[in-house]
């Protein structure tokens, strides 16, 4: 009701048996769903079936080894979480080109040049009161985001989302 449009329709169905004809969509986007059911292989196969030959699949999942580490309580709504290597194998079994990114919600500080540059990223992760870890990737990222296709994929840009609700600079806006 909130998102009705003349050119938009909604279908309800099982992700492992999509109610769509072959090669009928340009993109499939699935964030944080694949871990909520079993039969992920059937789901990815169905996505491949309904995508046009140059279509794109954007999908994310928790990285089981980070999200559900031994000291963490399991998420009762997750049926089958995947490790990074399982997720990579699953997508590469159906798609020729796959690129992976990591996602980690955080509160921190961003220091970026005013003009775009092609420079490497430096991440400093506080590991305790007296220890910081320096990395060139996002450490302990609980989520993996992938873009999969059967055509070459342009590398996605680095992305930084700023949530202003809890920052001391909010008063400056």
Characterization of the model:
The chain has 173 residues and is α+β, with helices and mostly antiparallel strands. It contains 3 helices and 6 strands; from the N terminus they run βαβααββββ. The two termini are 33 Å apart. The strands form 2 sheets. It has a 4-stranded mixed β-sheet. It is globular, with a radius of gyration of 19 Å.
Can you tell me the residue ranges where pLDDT is under 50 for at least 5 consecutive residues?
Answer: none
Mean pLDDT: 88
Describe the main β-sheet briefly: 4 strands, mixed
* Structural category: alpha+beta
How are the strands of the largest sheet arranged? Answer: 1-2-6-3
How far the N terminus sits from the C terminus, by CA atoms, comes to: 33 Å
Please count the beta strands (DSSP E, at least 2 residues each): 6
Amount of helix = 10-25%
Output the number of helix runs.
3
